[in-house]
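Could you join me in thinking about how sequence relates to backbone shape in a protein? We need material for that, and I hope you will provide a protein of your own picking. Once you have written the record down, we can walk along the chain together:

…
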Amino acid sequence: MGLLPNLLTITGLIFLTHAVYSAHEHASLYSTSHTIPSLPLDIVAETLISVLVTCAGIIASSPALKPIRWARWAGAAEREETRRRLGKGKTGRDGREPPAGNPWAWLTEERLGFWDGREKRREFADWVRGGGGI
């Protein structure tokens, strides 16, 4: 996070505050009439540009994105399922106790009638090995 992104964010927020104040003042000047006044083009432009500058400053000051490692997450979810099936304190195939925390367990394990694709694949493979008869 450098000085430039913070400067962009602060500058954008100052101009956004000024644009909001200008819009409020413009609307209050025409509050006696019964029609809704449209905002002048300079206030609209200042609002849009200040929002863009503020967004650019926030984006530039954010930390770098980390790569998504689906394989690592899926492995942790599988170890959690193995630990749940084996019982707490037991180890999996790799000899380590799997970490807790499959955040999607409520979708796959607690939902009645959930279609388990892996189990169906095993059943199909057993059916094929058995000759595939009806």
